[in-house]
């Protein structure tokens, strides 16, 4: 059951009005990471709440308490819980989005004012902070609701909404809210939810729509090596004492090879190898080695084999060395022997890896490698934070519906992708609700979500609005 | 020919007056590293010049031009050239010292006002900035001159003086001055100099006087590895691209072992091994492994063998890893793949090593090790700066005189030591004048030259004054 023709037609004929809605949203500089913009995040919550109410959504602004930022105690912006439809014969879909944005200053290198949506008629780009991350997708849902209200159409599913204003600053308070609304039983806002749809990521490229069914987890480590009571002069003590930096660099060099193989025994081995069939999936993705190299700005792909590079990003763990705290980091030349140095690295995890399974392997390996150094310095290893990976069942009707909707709107088979990074709320929804979660992106890989000149292509916004609506109809039509 | 008994007696009976001279010098806060104190460095130059003149020394204040500090153009403080005696039958000894000091604020942790000399009658310590580095030794020379003037004694040698006010800030302008005064022929201030005596270092410990006859040189390196055009997100690109940090850490791990062996082929090998006789010298020094570990504040000596530890510091090259520029260095956890990272390390050099001989070995080794990594990132190696090592002939009469003077004053055999660090002016004197240079310290190893609560023990100041005077008599007595 594709969406009714009048739905699609209405979206096309009201495109300018929908773009104005996005412009209104972008104009509120709801930067969650700046204390001075906190009022604007709250203003954005009220603006969005007003839109939802006017389109028939029952809502509640939920206070999430206070937190400290830049030494200042601030109230967290409220989360918005919403409900539309309670028909027990319909499926119930929970929509997530965030109405806060990354900081942006024209002086960062923007060509236009970041909080004024600029429509570039030559390229079709809608340029402004939050256009693609994540105001565009939220406006897409409002557009779907407005279209139905205007046409007097009934929605094919029940909807629940969860919109937050702290995503760019760690989603403070959200996990507790989700868990509590799930646990409440018949009184919880998320009772009876059949699946979740999140639009907060991007296509792999600028050509082919995708659905994302996996995210990597993370274990972040700090290796501390210390010896002398204070920094030493290398002239005075070089070759007289064990230097913490020598030991730390030796340890850090034993973690990963230049081509990405993780040397901690048991880590790579925990992941089943891809068979030929799975490799085919990666080879068929519309994402080439050249796309990867374009994106990073250097011809440094880890392999000449496309499947190897894409699997390295999507279905393999990775280990990156981030830096060292406590050593000399400035420009110029300083002849110090640092007294205490802390190496930082992290491992991106894929199923069945979890921090609980990985961390002991890492700690044990580092301790045994350190013992081999025969150094009199002291080692300690800390696990700073972590998160589990997530992979969804792509045979679920939630994905089936999204695939059909993509085919209907874009006339293309979507790429089915896993992403290398984390969107922690995904795992929270999947684990606390126990339902299928779908990542259904609206924007393209070159949108520059956290960068200067963030944009959403007009066609992605308008076709994306159709996609979201069509997805609801396809979901409703499948017998679950 | 020891010093006349009346010389020694006069120094003892005038100790309080000499301490007052040191107090007057400490009271002028001649910090060369702070633009706001530049006037005080100039004031100190004029005060010292007045003292020299009143004691019969012919002097010239030499303008060294201007330089830029903290974005401000400043006149360099003048250097003082001095001359006393022109008897062709006498030896001519050049004395070097510096009248500038390190910065000091009570708030740094001083127990007393840094620029007010405090006499701790219980410990015998003279506490104040510059007391030991390097105003104490300069005052020692003035005390020797005053004693001779008061007693109507003729000096046994001709003296030349070179006092500067920028030593703690890179000795700007001094090298050129020394070279030009040497090259001038009969008109140069340093014409006819037979040897040099520098009092600007310290005993190894707080017990045994020492003479220092060697200093290590330095080659400072920067290893730059770069790949992507910008910093990357480790979730997005971990295991998809070659990461510069992985390559850099691999290279840095191949430079030195935890017990100090340098892995660059040809570097350690360039230094002849010590034979048993030389090892005996190190074993006989009054400096133990416990002294080293006390000084660094940790039980981290590189070996349980005393000679190995002391030779590591004094007569072997050492390689220290200082840090990384461009990587994450803060507290906390950041999941960045840095785009361009620069590893900093340096090698302390000993004869016959020089930067010219060592640098090509290092560059070649790093390039060949990088090639083995099979990385698509780019490597470049820079040599930031360097200096040659220096070792003096301890059989020279200059050292013979200092040994006899030490025996006469302290009733002890001095430790003959080499130091791990550099005092660049030493090499300039040795190379441009082509004469023997002696480092004859006045203070003790625990004086805290660049630290809080800098002190010079009263006995080191008074016996040190006797030592300097006696050294002149012993030098005069030896038939060169
Ligand atoms: Zn987002
Ligand atoms: Zn000094």
Automatic annotation (TrEMBL), chains A, B:
Entry cofactors: Mn(2+)
Presence of the UniProt keyword Ubl conjugation in the record: no
Active-site residues per Swiss-Prot or TrEMBL entry: 100, 167
Record-level GO BP terms: proteolysis
UniProt site (Important for catalytic activity): 233
Domain Peptidase M20 dimerisation residues, every copy: 213-371
Keywords: Hydrolase, Manganese, Metal-binding, Metalloprotease, Protease
Binding residues for substrate: 200, 233, 335, 348, 422, 450
Cofactor note: Binds 2 manganese ions per subunit.
Keyword Iron-sulfur among UniProt keywords: no
CDD domains linked to this entry: M20_dipept_like_CNDP
InterPro entries (UniProt xref): ArgE/DapE_CS, CNDP/DUG1, Cyt/Met_Dipeptidase, Peptidase_M20, Peptidase_M20_dimer
Family: Belongs to the peptidase M20A family.
Record protein name field: CNDP dipeptidase
